[in-house]
């Protein structure tokens, strides 16, 4: 099975559309949370994730928007939550509210969380990935939250972050995503082979900068995208 993996879309429709166009043929989409927040297309991004039928978990911005609460938010993040809360209809808000903190797919082979299996709000950077994150007999754990793309392989399996679609923070302004391939056969050791490809794709950042200004959101939400910070 081949999976398209995304995280931290954050209401950035131009970036998400670029990722959708660049994604090779996959059997299923997986999303490690934060569909909304920051950027001015929360409704459109929720619609696209739902159209893709992506297996999705709740990010901290998703939770804040659905429950009308904050999460140690700075002014930019708080503004994005308020904007999304006003922009989404009741159906979209209910969909966000129903998202789980964690979910498994592929008969438990893949665990999806937003931050860390023990705490959905814990920032876990790639250099902190460790085998203990492969809980519930999962052979792949997918995380997001840090907006930093990375993959680490262990004897027990793979821990990965596809990077952020809509707000990269690893110094690369291009939208990030990954392709996860779990072979239905095995690798000779009695377990399915796992392959992860990380990708980046350019998109029209100026369109986002202009839309952020038109929406009355903090200017830096858009301009920071140019540096991937």
Structure description:
- This protein is an alpha/beta fold and 229 residues long.
- The protein has one domain (2-100, 159-226): Metallo-dependent phosphatases (Purple Acid Phosphatase, chain A, domain 2), CATH 3.60.21.10.
- The chain has helices spanning 13-22, 42-51, 60-67, 75-87, 90-98, 205-215, 219-223; strands spanning 2-6, 28-31, 55-56, 102-105, 110-113, 140-142, 150-154, 157-161, 175-182, 194-201.
- It has a 5-stranded mixed beta sheet with strand order 3-2-1-9-10. Strands 4-5-6-8-7 form a 5-stranded mixed beta sheet, with no helix packed on it.
- Strand 1, helix 1 and strand 2 form a beta-alpha-beta unit.
- The longest helix has 13 residues, at 75-87.
Gap between N and C termini: 33 Å
Number of helices: 7
CATH top-level class: Alpha Beta
In angstroms, what is the radius of gyration?
A: 17 Å
Pfam families: Metallophos_2 (PF12850)
Protein name: Metallophosphoesterase
InterPro entries: Ap4A_hydrolase (IPR050126), Calcineurin-like_PHP_lpxH (IPR024654), Metallo-depent_PP-like (IPR029052), Pesterase_MJ0912 (IPR011152)
GO molecular function: phosphatase activity
